[in-house]
Design a protein that fits this description.
Length: 244
């Protein structure tokens, strides 16, 4: 493992960008108080980002490397192609953009932005065990055929992006998309929203909603269940057993 982070250079953040970040962090920390899972709470503390100022990717990359052996990668201001995404994961590299939503669209952004990545995802990547499981998606995807690749992307999507996790009998937010979208967090826990136990067959048959909110959310019992899901999927699809 090299200490090089491949992180993007310090982006040219504007004052408006910093203000959007500060406002979103303030709003979401308050909104998730009842919904944040313990992995997020502990991870956010370890990540130790400035709630007022957007982070310097190089500094965050070095910090993550020391904590969990992950670093940051450079992403364009759009969705990465799935092939690129999983190649980054395989190399223990989390891709980040330099874009943050405009102030008039705080509720929901169709593109993953800085708030989604730094606030939604990175707390989880401070944990080495979660990092190991996330990394295992990479080689599994790369060993897979076309249908399987789509299915593995959905396994990722409905756990790390939009999953719900059980914690001491309560349901908590797990997916980064729930942490970074005030609107989607509310939808995921609304009384009439279907929330069902994670089931591989059902998940691989469910398309992710990239530009809209989801209809159904899937519940995992704990982080280790994601490792079990990957092992079960590999076994049934006769793919190489993930080393996790
Ligand atoms: Fe994401």
């Amino acid at each position: 493992m090299t200490a090089q982070t491949h992180a993007p250079a310090m982006p040219h953040y504007t004052e408006t960008d910093h203000a959007v970040w500060a406002e979103l962090v303030r709003q979401q920390l308050a909104q998730i108080e009842q919904r944040a899972c313990r992995e997020f709470v502990a991870g956010w503390r370890r990540l130790a980002l400035d709630p007022q100022q957007l982070p310097d990717p190089a500094a965050v990359g070095e910090h993550l490397m020391a904590l969990s052996g992950w670093s940051l990668g450079d992403a364009q201001n759009a969705y990465l192609e799935a092939d690129e995404w999983f190649a980054h994961l395989a190399r223990r590299r989390f891709p980040v953009t330099n874009y943050i939503r405009p102030p008039e669209r705080l509720e929901f952004t169709p593109l993953p932005d800085l708030f989604h990545e730094y606030f939604g995802h990175l707390a989880f990547f401070t944990d080495r065990r979660f990092g190991d499981i996330a990394q295992a998606f990479g080689p599994l995807y790369q060993a897979a055929g076309e249908r399987q690749r789509l299915e593995i992307a959905r396994l990722w999507w409905f756990t790390t992006e939009f999953g719900i996790i059980r914690e001491d009998g309560a349901l908590k937010a797990f997916g980064a998309g729930l942490y970074s979208s005030p609107g989607e967090l509310a939808k995921a826990f609304a009384p009439n929203t279907p929330r069902v136990p994670f089931d591989i067959d059902q998940v691989v048959a469910t398309a992710g909603a990239k530009y809209d909110m989801h209809d159904t959310y899937f519940i995992i019992d704990d982080v280790e269940q994601i490792a079990t899901i990957l092992r079960d999927y590999a076994r049934r699809e006769r793919l190489p057993e993930p080393h996790i």
